[in-house]
Specification:
It is built from twelve helices and eight strands. The protein has 348 residues and is an alpha/beta fold. The longest helix has 17 residues.
Length: 348
């Protein structure tokens, strides 16, 4: 039995003859909290946003101090801290996404180096991460070749798009990537909603993905943050396109007058729980939240899941994610769990 299939069984049946087991939890969107993987411009923008909020409430904090604090939270080069947080929160696995910001910001590593880093992280923590490799359609054949390498040699689990960098998620230049995803049974996770810095937020509309969903019906598409921003568009697509799903990452920052719990409870009662994936976008909120605190808000009887059938709650917390990453229909040639090789200091 494959790992996803075994985990899916554990979701519904316990060891004692059909007694429900602990709910398997998969976070459908996390990133490596490392300056090696996140552009400095992204972190500076995040720090500026935090500083603006603090000063608005009368807190006098030097901007440099805020930036230092944000940078200190992004030194987790090997994901040891991330995995420790997952363990404490009861998160079994996560989609580790690697957005391609190379056209809008400088990263310390080249794209091939970044792919190699995430492969090493996945092997360092076997069974914990499904890596979604980020691409940009302007990378040409080099980008396609690198994605094929990530799939065949590293066993990466999916494709990540960040259209706000300057392209539509239905850009025809992405078709070769979608064809690879159709061949291997890999899902595509695309960012929706706002982003950071000078990026074009108009490219975050879920409906921009519609052409791709029609032309590639065998590819499963996930609307990142679709349960938080542009929710009407996202749920509309989920209800009418069999291959469209959404995640609820960044849920605790949703703009709703009655709070994010009430907002999500309404979403969960719209009849599309078989299309919704739990996610947090961790560690973007390390500065103000704990992963365990976010996860605990979905315990049975909590306001966010009040009145929800247990079967639906389990689908949201892991069942849907396991199903999507479990559809891979061709093996990869690499080995996920060999002994860790020697690495340069700071990139362990």
């Amino acid at each position: 039995m494959t790992e996803p299939a075994a985990a899916a069984t554990a979701v519904s049946v316990g060891a004692a003859g059909g007694v429900p087991d602990r709910v398997h939890i998969i976070d459908a969107q996390v990133q490596l909290g490392s300056e090696l993987a996140v552009p400095r411009a992204f972190l500076e923008y995040q720090a500026a946003n935090v500083h603006h909020r603090l000063t608005s409430y009368g807190h006098r904090v030097p901007p440099a101090r805020t930036l230092d604090h944000v940078l200190a939270l992004h030194q987790d080069d090997n994901a040891d801290k991330l995995v420790a947080e997952m363990d404490e929160a009861g998160v079994d696995q996560a989609f580790l996404v690697v957005p391609d910001f190379s056209r809008v910001a400088q990263c310390r590593l080249t794209r091939p180096e970044l792919a190699d880093l995430h492969d090493r992280v996945a092997r360092r923590h076997p069974g914990r991460f499904h890596v979604f490799w980020g691409v940009d359609p302007r990378a040409g054949q080099d980008g396609v070749d690198l994605f094929e390498r990530c799939v065949n040699e590293y066993g990466f689990a999916g494709l990540k798009l960040y259209p706000l960098c300057g392209y539509s998620p239905s850009d025809r230049r992405l078709d070769p990537y979608f064809e690879i995803c159709a061949q291997f049974g890999l899902p595509v996770l695309t960012h929706t909603g706002p982003g950071w810095g000078p990026l074009d937020f108009s490219l975050g509309s879920p409906l921009l993905l519609d052409r791709a969903t029609r032309d590639f019906p065998r590819v499963d598409f996930i609307l990142g943050h679709g349960g938080v921003t542009h929710v009407d568009e996202a749920t509309y697509l989920c209800a009418h396109r069999p291959n469209v799903h959404l995640d609820i990452s960044q849920f605790h920052s949703v703009l709703a007058a009655d709070g994010w719990q009430a907002h999500l409870n309404r979403l969960f009662h719209q009849g599309i729980c078989h299309k919704i994936l739990f996610g947090t976008c961790w560690p973007s909120y390390r500065i103000s939240e704990s992963l365990g605190g976010l996860v605990s808000a979905f315990a049975p009887g909590s306001p966010a899941v009040a009145g929800l059938r247990e079967a639906d709650r389990r689908l949201v917390m892991s069942g849907n994610a396991l199903r999507l990453v479990g559809r891979r229909n061709a093996p990869y040639t690499g080995h996920r769990n060999p002994p860790m090789p020697q690495r340069p200091t700071g990139v362990a």
